[in-house]
Structure formats: structure tokens, C-alpha cells
Design brief:
Length: 256
């Protein structure tokens, strides 16, 4: 077991435990811990981290994304967002939660013209942005005679987002609150919730991701059985900590 660390520390432990020293350009030696130059290890570390994110929420899962609108804004791109729980609009007068509409409901409400042509006003509604089909990724809205403003084309197909309506008539701070994937680890000093709080589990997740790549079913089970068991124990403890924190802050008592 080792303490809070960064990507370089995770990489070093991953390479040492896996024995795949070819996944770094500078394998550890007796005089130099090395492992500061990636040659494939980071791929497995990030895949493992993403798997862990999906296995169980952690205290770093729920986060807020803030965006200042400009006049006429109707969409906000969101990278790494898993699910959206609420969207808020903030001004000097306070905050107001936007009402969620299904994409079809939003289109019905504003069916007489393109979203971008609707008169600007205070944003009151939000919905999920729609992605184009894979066969039209090379297209843009300008390729169509009567385009839709809520469809993403091209490279944005891999990016989620929301539509807010009516178009903003000025500057508002929009808060998107929801569940997010952990930060992608790219540089040696990069950190995430997993590297700082549960580095051992992250290393095990990376090892399991590598076994998946090699199609080693038994290897995956060997790594993930203890990981899932440890995660259950870990998050039972986190839940207990959260409840006790709530008790402390609110003065509530738990009976039983």
C-alpha cells in the first residue's frame, strides 16, 4: 500500500507489479525509480480509472461546470460528463433552476423557427444536445437547407452538451451539476481522486484493464475480484463517513 501520489507514482507501481517494463521508456533501476516517460502504461491506467468511475461513484464524482453565456448562446459543450442532474442560471439577483425538457418537448415548444432565430430572453429550459449519426460525422449544419441547431456534427460527436432556451439575452452564469468522469491523466504530475485517495485500487484497475487487452479472462477475474470487494468495503466506509458528517452538521441523531 502506498499513499497519495500522481500519475508518475501510479505508473511506477503499475509497471513494477505487472512486470511489463516495456510500457515505459525509462524502467526503474537500483539507482533511479524511473517510469517518468510513458510508452503505453498511461493507456491502461486511464482505462482502469474509467472502469472504476463506472463501477461506483466516489466523493469526486459529482461536480459543477460553470459557463458564462454571451448574447444569443443556445448550447454548452460538456466533455467528460456522465449524467446531468440539474442546470442552474445565476445572476446578481440569485439562482434559478432551469426546467428540463425532453428533446422532443423542446422542439415542440420552439417549433416555428430555428433555435438560433428565437428572440433572446432569460434562459428557462434545458435539454440534452443531439448527436449526428456516425455516417454524417463529416457534415456540418451548413450542409443542410433547413438545419437543426441542437445537433452536433463532426469532431463534436464525441462531446456531450446541453441546449438552453430561449437564447440568452445577455450574460448569465450557467451551472451544470452532475456526475463526471475523473480527470484524464496525461502528465507526470497529474492527479485525480483515485490517485490521491485510493491509489492501490487504481493500480489494480489498470492491471485488470491490461489483462482485458490481452484477453486474459482469468487475469481479469484475478484482479477485479479483489478490486470489487475492496471497493464495496471502501464505499461502505465512505457512506458511513458521509452520514456521520451529515449528523455532525445538522445535529440529527441516528437511532439503531
Amino acid at each position: 500500500m502506498f499513499g497519495p501520489t500522481n500519475l508518475a507514482g501510479i505508473r511506477r507501481q503499475f509497471v513494477t507489479l505487472s512486470g511489463h517494463y516495456g510500457l515505459v521508456n525509462d524502467p526503474p533501476t537500483d539507482s533511479d525509480p524511473g517510469c517518468k516517460e510513458d510508452s503505453g502504461a498511461d493507456y491502461y491506467i486511464n482505462v482502469g480509472q474509467r472502469i472504476l468511475d463506472r463501477l461506483r461513484d466516489n466523493p469526486g464524482t459529482r461536480r459543477s461546470y460553470l459557463y458564462d453565456t454571451a448574447e444569443g448562446d443556445i448550447s454548452i459543450d460538456l466533455t467528460g460528463c456522465r449524467t446531468i442532474e440539474t442546470v442552474w442560471r445565476s445572476t446578481s439577483d440569485g439562482k434559478q433552476e432551469l426546467t428540463f425538457l425532453e428533446p422532443a418537448e423542446m422542439r415542440s415548444r420552439y417549433s416555428t423557427e430555428r433555435y438560433s432565430e428565437v428572440d433572446s430572453d432569460i434562459p428557462a429550459y434545458w435539454t440534452h444536445i443531439t448527436r449526428s449519426v456516425p455516417g454524417q460525422l463529416s457534415k456540418t449544419a451548413s450542409d443542410f437547407t433547413y438545419p437543426f441547431d441542437d445537433i452536433q456534427f463532426g469532431e463534436k460527436e464525441q462531446v456531450g452538451g446541453i441546449v438552453i432556451m430561449p437564447p440568452a439575452d445577455g450574460v448569465y452564469t450557467i451551472e451544470v451539476y452532475g456526475r463526471w468522469f475523473s480527470k484524464v491523466l496525461n502528465s507526470n504530475e497529474d492527479k485525480s481522486w483515485w490517485t490521491l485517495n485510493e491509489p492501490d485500487i487504481l493500480v489494480q484497475g489498470a492491471l485488470a484493464a491490461m489483462e482485458m487487452h490481452f484477453r486474459n479472462t482469468q487475469g481479469v477475474l484475478d484482479y477485479f475480484h479483489p478490486v470489487t470487494g475492496t471497493i464495496t468495503i471502501l464505499f461502505n466506509g465512505i457512506t458511513k463517513d458521509s452520514v456521520e458528517d451529515d449528523v455532525f452538521r445538522t445535529g440529527k441523531r441516528i437511532v439503531g
